[in-house]
Structure formats: structure tokens, C-alpha cells
Amino acid sequence: MIRVPSPAKLNLFLHITGRRADGYHELQTIFQLIDLYDWLEFEPNGNQNICLDGLSNVEQTDNLIFKAAEKLKPFAQRFCGLNIHLDKHIPMGAGLGGGSSNAATTLLVLNQLWQCSLNIQQLAEIGQSLGADVPVFVYGHNAWAEGIGEQITFINLPKKQFIVLKPDCFISTQLLFSQKTLTRDSKTSKFCAYQRKPSDFGNNFEPIARSLYPEVNEAMQYLDQFGIAKLTGTGACVFVEVTPDMQTEQIVRNAPCNAYLVQSLDKSPLCDIQVVL
């Protein structure tokens, strides 16, 4: 059996800079990998089937892990059936990229296990067909992203800790995008501008999420006592950067919802993964 980590991410900011003719939105964001992990276990089962468990509320054929495996089947030079178990720790519907990360982990592991011989760029292209956030997890590096998220520039970020709160609600991304008050014309910027003044960079979805979901507003009000609270992705998770004067254990303990103390990652542990059965 092979057991590998699948890391989460934070969007340190998220701006919508326009809307394309095909309806997709152009954006700018920073992907920061963090040490909150799901774990995936892969075990050959002696038949030709892919059997997935660990996420009972999602149909197997709708799961990005299963879809990623199906995408790689045509390239397999040494195919084997697998039992895949997901040990879930990244909350769902949270804006932390758990599903995208799981898909990327599956692509990276099965590329080696099935001897598909695809390079990292080819895996990222397959990942993009599964979701806009999948390629950054395939590459496994912090990144400045543009376009619909597929234009990735790798960046170096300082090591930091974050307190992440998961409000007890599930945000509809479609509902947020449908709001007429959503800002869709933020000015494009550069990473150097972010480095000079990160506080100028927010999340265009934040005011709408706070308005529509009282749980998100409560979590942000709580974290705003200690720093500048931000929404990641379209939520529901919110986070704040840890500073030296913070009583982190107390903040986490008294949070109004599930709370996590996480460390930033320079790169995904999957960058150095070697699959051996």
C-alpha cells in the first residue's frame, strides 16, 4: 500500500479582473500551500477496477480522484486495478482546494505506479481539465496565478503561520458569482506590488460572503480582533496571519467554529515523491 499526503492551499488574495466572452472570469491570486493534509492510500486489488472510499456523500464517478484516475488510464503502460482510500482532514466546501489537491495527488502517484511516462507539464494540462486549481497542486509550488487560474508563475513566499477558521456553512460558488454587486473589474497588478503592501490586496468575494452567510461574518469578526482576516477562495474558510504577539492556542481554543493552526509550505511534499510498491 502507498500512503501519500495531499496538501491544502490558501488564496492570499483573490481579485476578479474581467469576464471573458465565454463567461469565464479572469482573476489574479496567490496560491500559498499549507501543511493541512488529506491522505490518500493506493493499494492494487488484483482486478481491473478502481474502487474509492472515504467520501460517502459524493458519488464515486463524481469524485475528482476517480476522474483523475480515469484520465490517466489511456496512458498506462502497466495498469492495475486499485483500492483508493481517502483519509479526509481538509474540510469540504472551504476554499482550501482539497478536491483539487486530491486530484493532483492521484495524477502524480498513478503516473509513476502505472508507468504513464507523462511529464509534469502534461500532468498539469490533464489537471486543468479537471479544475482550474489542480495544476498548481501538480507543480507543487507557491504561485502567482492569472487568467482563469491556469497562467502560473512560481514565487517564493516567506515562511508564516496562519490561523484558519471553518465556519459551519457550505458556500455556493455559483450564488456568489451570480450577485450583481460582485466586483469584476479589479485593476490588474504585479507580485512586486503585493510584496510592497499585501494589505492592499483582498478578496472580491469577501463582502458578499459576509453578507449572505452570517457564519462567515462571525468568523471574520472574531479574527479581525487579532489581525487582518481574509477569505480564501470563495470560502467558507477565513484566515489570519500569525504575529509574534498572538496567543495562538487561546485564539484557536476560543474560536466560534473549527479552527486550525497551519504552517506555510515552500513546496508540496509530493514534489519529491517516489512511488514504490
UniProtKB/TrEMBL annotation:
Residues 63-140 form the GHMP kinase N-terminal domain. The keyword DNA-binding does not apply. SUPFAM superfamilies: GHMP Kinase, C-terminal domain (SSF55060), Ribosomal protein S5 domain 2-like (SSF54211). Gene3D superfamilies: 3.30.230.10, GHMP kinase, C-terminal domain (3.30.70.890). It comes from the Bacteria. Keywords: ATP-binding, Isoprene biosynthesis, Kinase, Nucleotide-binding, Transferase. The keyword Cell membrane does not apply. Coiled coil: none annotated. GO terms for biological process: isopentenyl diphosphate biosynthetic process, methylerythritol 4-phosphate pathway; terpenoid biosynthetic process. It is an enzyme of class 2 (transferase). It catalyses: 4-CDP-2-C-methyl-D-erythritol + ATP = 4-CDP-2-C-methyl-D-erythritol 2-phosphate + ADP + H(+). ATP binds at residues 91-101. Residues 202-255 form the GHMP kinase C-terminal domain. The active site is at 9, 133. It holds the Pfam family GHMP_kinases_N. Pathway: Isoprenoid biosynthesis; isopentenyl diphosphate biosynthesis via DXP pathway; isopentenyl diphosphate from 1-deoxy-D-xylulose 5-phosphate: step 3/6. One of its GO terms (molecular function) is ATP binding. Its EC number is 2.7.1.148. PANTHER family: 4-DIPHOSPHOCYTIDYL-2-C-METHYL-D-ERYTHRITOL KINASE, CHLOROPLASTIC. HAMAP family: IspE. Catalyzes the phosphorylation of the position 2 hydroxy group of 4-diphosphocytidyl-2C-methyl-D-erythritol. Belongs to the GHMP kinase family. IspE subfamily. This is 4-diphosphocytidyl-2-C-methyl-D-erythritol kinase. It comes from Acinetobacter brisouii CIP 110357. The gene is ispE.
